[in-house]
Amino acid sequence: MSMKFTGKVKAISIKESKAGLGFIDSDRPIPGHEGDILFFADKLIGLGIEYVERGDSVEFTVTEWNRKDGTIQKIAEEVRFLNKTISLTGVINWVSAEKGNGYIKPDTPLDSINKDLFFFKQDLEDVEIENIAKGDQVEFIVKIVNYRDGRVIKSVKNIRLLSEQVNLSIQSATNTQSSDPPSAANIQTSDIVSVTNLQTYNHHTLKLKEVKEKIGLLLSSYKTLSDPAEFEDYTFMILRLLGIHSLYQYDKKNQAGRADGFFIISSLAVMYDCTLRNDFEEHKKEQIENYVNKLKNSQITIDFRLTDGGVRKKTLQIQGKNCQVWIITKNNTRELYDVDGIRVKEVAVQDLMKVFNKRLYSDAFEEDELSANLAVIDKS
Question: Model-level pTM greater than 0.70?
Fold first, then answer.
């Protein structure tokens, strides 16, 4: 049996009309060889070289290559990827709700074999298998799994319908109704608040359960947000959809060093700031201290943005409220610390989505219950 080595991909070369190749930095010395070891694209197992990235962890064996000049060089072969995960898009090529599985055809083949990828219904995210069909466009994650017997399995996870496809589905459904509701093209984000009005549509055409699932899919776009301003606006929209009426977004033109927004619901008062940074604590230390000091007062005056683009001042009474500072991220919800009864928390936007979904699927969800859920969001 050939000796196996592990290492990391150090360099890749892909040139037109030439064989792709790369170099691996081995974790331990290779007998009879010095420096990084060469590999060719056809020695990769399970993936094409287009998906190889610098830093990828790999396992490989070593063989000898007889060069044209008569010299012999050691090269890597049977190159397998360790803990490799790839984000892809594709199309549902076959699906069976009865069997609970299906196949996805990737937009770009993973290797020369070009096989469809198998998935189970458990791999779907934010949608039921009954609500997907052949031809639906999806995005998903593929994890390369290596077995001891040499098999390489491409495990498909986190399958989500693409927003464009969701929009088409909603438009298709609304355009075939017997009543005359607003067209899907004119539906704005704010119209989602009136989702219960959709019950009056023809129930044979548009099922309320399906509508709720589509809403959840549309709102799951936070995962792809990379622009801080868009993330801030998205967060404000989710808080509004939760049913928080006393919600104010600060004017972005005069926002340096200030929070992104503030809201009061029942006995809860929250000053929040949105960030896409993972290491925000030191970066926002002074800002958080400033937010805490503001909440120690009996009232707070804010300059908030109006829907027409204007700015207005408003003074709000917060004495006796459960005051909290939220740093809203895409990470994990946790309490950071407590300053004189004012709790400072990191709140994951996906946990706000969970509260929204809870409200969406509940027959009754009063303001006090919403306030209670938000007050202890780090405990849920």
Answer: no
